[in-house]
From TrEMBL:
Organism: Paeniglutamicibacter sulfureus
CDD domains: MFS_ShiA_like
Annotated localization: Cell membrane
PANTHER family linked: SHIKIMATE TRANSPORTER
Source organism phylogeny: Bacteria, Bacillati, Actinomycetota, Actinomycetes, Micrococcales
Pfam families: MFS_1, Sugar_tr
Annotated spans, Disordered: 1-21
Record-linked InterPro entries: MFS, MFS_dom, MFS_sugar_transport-like, MFS_trans_sf
Name by which UniProt lists this protein: MFS family permease
Membrane topology note: Multi-pass membrane protein
Superkingdom as given in the UniProt entry: Bacteria
Domain (Major facilitator superfamily (MFS) profile) ranges: 26-440
Amino acid sequence: MATPSHTGLDAAQQHPEATPKETRRALISSFLGSTVEYYDFLLYGAAAGLVFPHLFFPESMDKGLGTALSFVILLAGYIARPVGGVLFGHFGDKFGRKNILFITLMMMGLVSVAIGLMPTYQTIGIAAPLLLVLLRVIQGLAVGGEWAGATLMAAEHVKEKNRGFAASIAVTGGPTGSVLATLILGLFAGLPEEAFLAWGWRIPFLLSAVLVIIGLYMRYRVTESPDFLRAKATGATHTGMPLARVLRDYPKETILGTLAVAGPLFMQAMLAIFMVPYVVASGAVDRQTALMMLTASSLVHIFAIPFFAWLSDRYGRRPVMLAGALISVALVFPMFALFNSGVFWMIALGFMVGNPIIQASMYGPIGAFLAEKFDTESRYTGVSLTFQVGSVLGAGMAPLMSQWLVKLGNGGGTNNIAWYFIFLIAVGAACVLMSKETLKRK
């Protein structure tokens, strides 16, 4: 006799909401895992403008060209992220979030350690930058599957009324990873130039192994997403291709979500990767001081993201993100004026305006904003695809676009970057305006 299929009610009874202990464990695991992932990923970005032009390209090459090529390799990692998002999203939607997140974290840690052990151009010639490209692409694949998985593990372990705040806990892994990356790299940047370039820059990459072990332990202990288990019990996860479902059933949501995230992600990467070497080149601050300024702003950023996410739980995703767009447009020119002031405390204030205010105001609700666009059986793939394609358009292009715009012959300098950012924010705000409000009020 055939076994009766599970109804939605049966599934809910078999897989009830997570207990408070399971919820806390999921939130901590998502936060720590995302922190480790972004520590590894952003560490490359922090080193791209300061270290790699000196070590992985010929000494005879112009350092500006070396920096541009380092940013191209950085972009390669971002281009790989949508591929990783679709790949890991497929298996995450079919077989569960937990095991996929274990794999992505392991991949990131191994690649980071490998970068720390890499021989330079002087040792192996052209193989050095080519190997760096390969490792960066593997990093991109891993982080492409990480962001959505960590965000969903947090969001799907809580009640709907708290989903924005819960998703933001995983999202804050980004600035937390940035704090760790820039803080540790900044400490070693205080070494004499010769020692820093010889071995000092390698230590932060090798320390990734310690963080990965902690993150893997926490991921091992976390329970699978209750939402996924309920979908699995109904048989929804065993039918069709998640990517095909997303493209067929959610084309509008995918496009709107992708364009909505590009602006905030541009600001994040521009500050972390382009602005540090920019202010150092101006002579106003040294390398270590600039990294510490970025670290301080990222520390405040950790608390700003959940704050704006909490506001979105109370007032809706769209109102908060649209208000964030207005804040971004109003403050971007003052922010660049602070960076160009040549005054220590004003440059530090520029980072504070950029990260915890401009970037966080629109970025805070992003996790819930994207997750609520898709059903459970397509959610991992849908969120991965929208966020990671948006990251290519925003963060991936940020260093190269910023370097090109600031050197345009029109004399605009950083004002060119500001206008480009305003364009991205305007497009993003229009996409938010065209999106449905997904906050469920009870």
